[in-house]
Design brief:
- The chain has 340 residues and is α+β, with helices and mostly antiparallel strands.
- The chain has two domains: 239 residues, Zn peptidases (Aminopeptidase, 3-Layer(aba) Sandwich); 80 residues, Beta Barrel (Elongation Factor Tu (Ef-tu), domain 3), CATH 2.40.30.40.
- It has eight helices and 18 strands.
- Strand 10 and strand 11 form a beta hairpin.
- The radius of gyration is 20 Å and the shape is globular.
- Bound molecules: cobalt (II) ion and zinc ion.
Length: 340
């Protein structure tokens, strides 16, 4: 599981350029799936059909986004410095000093015009990327080139740190859940639901992939698996979510209210199977579940969140046990017929 997470997080994939990530996922899921397709926006849709004779199988869409936050080159000056803007929630304070890799493999470092006041905010329109060029002509970056943080995966005991844990850790949870359900099948367990594991695109720029995928699938129930910021670091927002205390069952974020039936399903399954879980009320951000919930005539939707520190930095931290318990919870939920 750790090796796959390392591969997933070290793969390049800002919004709109999820191809490399999709390739890694495809290799894992192809042997496990009944159907695989890619839609026009690049969403990877992996289906696990219900057993023959399943009564009123529910169509359940699981979503984890492949894309990560990034940058896009907007101007190259005469000395070859690259000005850029954000792709998704790329914050200045996390970007200054970072290394960025562009789609053509070129690496650059992020500098700042002038630091007059060390405590002033750091807007990214005062930043540039130095790719080692000396003039505009020898600059290997063109306007319109996408980049993303360049940072390797590390382990700190059970704490795992990498760029794009948001949301490759969710991607990992979906892959491992699909694997667990397939294993269960080979041991004689049958699937009572019609499952769509969807690896979505363009979440970070406004949950765009999940919306069209949900329109196409027309699910009865939608569940996003994404990270959630925690309240367990010095002077953090007053939130109860902590690293290592289990997957979070979302009640609310600024973009959605979870369907109470889906919340009950999650909590009852966790309690029955003795899987640790946390209650989540998130004060900032949203997920693919918002787009699924308000597609077509509306879909019952909820979220299982992996607690994560330093979200949208190049060193996002999750706990291995939370990943394992998220897989357990999702597998337990999907292994039984859903009755609501
Ligand atoms: Co995000
Ligand atoms: Zn996310």
């Amino acid at each position: 599981m750790k090796q796959l997470l390392k591969t997933l997080t070290e793969t390049f994939g800002p919004s709109g350029f999820e191809d490399e990530v999709r390739k890694v996922i495809l290799k894992e899921v192809k042997p496990l799936a009944d159907e695989v397709r890619v839609d026009a926006l690049g969403n990877l849709i992996v289906r696990k059909k219900p057993a023959k004779g399943a009564k009123n199988p529910k169509r359940i869409m699981l979503a984890a986004h492949m894309d990560e936050i990034g940058v896009i080159a907007s101007h190259i000056d005469k000395r070859g410095f690259v000005r850029f803007t954000n792709v998704g929630g790329t914050f200045g304070r996390y970007t200054l000093g970072a290394r960025v890799r562009f789609m053509n493999g070129v690496t650059g470092i992020v500098g700042y015009d002038k630091l007059e006041n060390m405590d002033a905010p750091l807007p990214i329109n005062k930043m540039y990327i130095d790719v080692g060029a000396s003039n505009k002509k020898d600059c290997p970056i063109k306007v319109g080139d996408f980049g993303a943080f360049d940072r390797s995966f590390i382990e700190m005991g059970d704490r795992l740190v990498a760029k794009s844990m948001d949301d490759r850790s969710g991607v990992l949870v979906l892959i491992e859940t699909l694997r667990a359900i397939t294993l269960r099948q080979t041991q004689g367990g049958s699937t009572q639901n019609d499952l769509y594991f969807v690896f979505t695109t363009q979440e970070e720029v406004g949950v765009r992939g999940a919306g069209v995928a949900a329109y196409g699938i027309d699910p009865d129930i939608g569940i996003a698996v994404d990270v959630t910021p925690t309240g367990d670091t010095p002077a953090s927002l007053k939130m109860v979510m902590e690293l290592g205390k289990g997957p979070c069952v979302k009640f609310r974020d600024p973009g959605m209210l979870s369907d109470p039936r889906v919340v009950d399903w999650m909590i009852q399954t966790a309690e029955k199977a003795k899987i640790p879980y946390q209650r989540e009320v998130l004060l900032v951000g949203s997920t693919d579940a918002r787009a699924i919930q308000i597609t077509r005539a509306g879909v019952m939707a909820g979220v299982i969140s992996v607690p994560c520190r330093y979200v949208h930095s190049a060193s996002e931290m999750v706990d291995l046990n939370d990943l394992k318990n998220s897989v357990k919870l999702l597998t337990a939920m999907l292994s039984k017929a859903v009755s609501f």
